[in-house]
Design a protein that fits this description.
With 265 residues, this protein is α+β, with helices and mostly antiparallel strands. Helix content is 34%, strand content 25%.
Length: 265
């Protein structure tokens, strides 16, 4: 690792202030992405601001309309939460499929979406459920939050504080995981919400998570696996690497979408 200054923030305001004052500051949540990046010398921040001491950033609150999850809530806590399982079982299932137990007990929802890894699971849930990202400055609709590869709508000194998920009529998430990392080669989140059908895909797109309108339209007419069976996503903008070709990922999108719809029926 390179030398850096370490700060343990006592509040969101304190973290924002320290982040703004740093020459090239980075926030540390669970550290599941940042720490390996530092070890590999792929990043050289001047300052690290640790959010671990801000207790009010963690926790899950439920009401009749859905659940609000604090940014420092771990994947493990989401996966085992009775409130999440009751309101949005698909979200609990998604969290339980992230990484391994060590990652699930350290990684956080806020860190995951702020990093916006193109193979991460939570962006699919945020887009698929039409979530709202709450920050230290404002509220951002999920459709406007994820901007591209490792890019979000966050300003330099803006911090994710919570994610608000509305309760869907039905939903499910299915993914084809990399057998080593458990990242999604392709993951598809399907939901029938109060505002219609939503189908979000992660792991496949060169620009990160995206929606499939053709599948949404088809499910709006008939919520059945057969409705999406013959819908293919063009592979021109899909990832192709040592793990899977763009053509194979295109095939997996349809397969995972069918499985998600069947699970949600």
């Amino acid at each position: 690792m390179y030398d850096f200054s370490y700060h343990r923030a006592g509040s969101v305001a304190d973290a924002s202030s320290k982040l703004k004052a740093a020459e090239d500051g980075k926030l540390v949540a669970g550290g599941m992405t940042l720490i390996p990046t530092l070890k590999q010398r792929l990043a050289q921040p001047s300052d690290l601001i640790d959010l671990g001491g801000i207790n009010d950033l963690a926790g899950i609150k439920a009401d009749g309309s859905g659940v609000t999850i604090g940014a420092m809530t771990t994947h493990g806590a989401v996966a085992t939460s009775k409130d999440v399982k009751s309101a949005i079982p698909a979200l609990a299932h998604l969290a339980g499929e992230i990484g391994d137990p060590q990652v699930r007990h350290r990684g956080t929802i806020g860190g995951s979406i702020a990093n916006n890894d193109p193979a991460a699971d939570y962006p699919a849930a945020c887009i698929g459920l039409g979530a709202t990202i709450v920050t230290s400055k404002r509220e951002i609709a999920a459709d406007e939050f994820f901007k591209g590869l490792f890019e979000t709508a966050l300003a330099d000194d803006e911090i994710v504080t919570a994610v608000r998920f509305p309760k869907p009529k039905r939903a499910a998430y299915m993914k084809f995981p990399n057998p080593a990392s458990r990242y999604a080669l392709v993951g598809v989140f399907v939901a029938e919400t109060g505002n219609g059908m939503r189908v979000a895909v992660t792991g496949a797109g060169q620009n990160g998570v995206f929606r499939v309108k053709a599948m949404e339209d088809a499910l709006g007419k008939s919520f059945a696996a057969d409705a999406v069976a013959n819908i293919s996503v063009p592979d021109g903008d899909l990832n192709s690497d040592i793990h899977a070709s763009a053509e194979y990922r295109a095939h997996l999108i349809t397969v995972m979408a069918k499985r998600a719809v069947a699970a949600a029926e």
